[in-house]
Structure formats: structure tokens, C-alpha cells
Amino acid sequence: MFKRIEAFFAKEFSEKAGRLFVFSIFLFVPNFQFKMLFLFLLATSMLAWDIQQKRTVNLMILPFSLSQVFLLSWGFMISLITITHFIGAAIPVGLLTTGYFVQSWLNSLIFATSYFSIAMIFVISGLDNLGMPFLVLIGDWILSSIGGFRNFYWYISPVSQGNVLASATFAFVLFALALYMFVKKGATK
């Protein structure tokens, strides 16, 4: 299985090297609010971008099921976020604590998983991988800023993440829905 994962990761690096390099530079910054835009761009440029650009032939040549392709693409994104986050954490930046870095890492994973899933849901539904998720992101910012802790959506929002457990659960529900849709409908747009 490790050879298959290695083959998938090598394919992703070779096809998306330029974008990954640019996004990775900005993912070194430990501030979650700053890197949110780059996490969004990374999440929407993974498997959803491949489907949008009709580049799924390369994916279907590999000996993977649709669920494995989905999970490996998500795993690749999570690996990239984790590596850049912890390398960035090794660079001393003021008086930031270990707890802050862990919280920022969890926020990044939840946000990226949510928007990876949202992009996949839109692409599988026949829409684009960037425009519609960007509208959702704007709506997410607006809805989560209304009323603060009195607003239920503030707790589950991928942007505000008022409660980490609630927002992680919401991200998991989106992830499960996107995986289900991808397995049922396939990779053709």
C-alpha cells in the first residue's frame, strides 16, 4: 500500500509543483487568519481541480478505487498542511506558545477539510471548483460574524470555528457527503 501512496503523492507533486510551492510558502506562516486564503486555494486545487480540468484519466490509470483516490487526495493535502505548519512552528516568531501552534494546526485541518469537501460537492454536482466554494466562503464569513457566540452557525463555521469539536464534526459530515457523492457519481464532470 505504501508504494501506491508514494505513486499518488509523486503524481500530485509532478502535476501541481508550481501551485504547491507557492501555497506552501504562505502556509509556513503560523497565523491561521493569514493563511486561510491559501488553505482555501490549496483545498480547491486538489482533486476538485483535477475533475474540473478533466484530468481524471491520470487518476483512473492508477490502481485505486474511487474512495482511495478521494482519501489519498485529501491525505496529500493534510500532509502538506501538517508539514508546512510544523516547519513554520520551528521558526521562532515572538512569544507564541505550543498551544497556539496546535490550535492553529487543528483550525487549518478543519478549514481545509471543509473546503476540500465543499469544492468536491460542487464539482460533482456539475459546478466549478473555485467560484462556488468562494461564494460559500464569503457567506461563511458573513454568517459566522453575525451575533458571535449567540449564533449557532458561529460554532460550526469552518471560518470562525467557535467550538473546535462542533466545527470538526461539521467538517466530517461535509467530508462524508463529498466522499459518498464521489463514489456514487464517479470522477467524470
Tell me about this structure.
The protein is mostly helical and 189 residues long. Helices cover 76% and strands 0% of the residues. The chain has ten helices and no strands. The protein has helices spanning 2-15, 17-27, 32-44, 47-52, 56-61, 66-90, 98-124, 131-145, 152-156, 164-185. The longest helix has 27 residues, at 98-124. The two termini are 28 Å apart.
Helical fraction? over 70%
Structural class: mainly alpha
Low-confidence stretches: none
Number of beta-strand segments: 0
The average pLDDT value, as a whole number, equals 84
Strand content: under 5%
Largest sheet entry: none
The total of helices stands at 10
Radius of gyration: 16 Å
End-to-end C-alpha gap: 28 Å
- The helix-strand sequence is HHHHHHHHHH
Task: Assign an overall shape.
Answer: globular
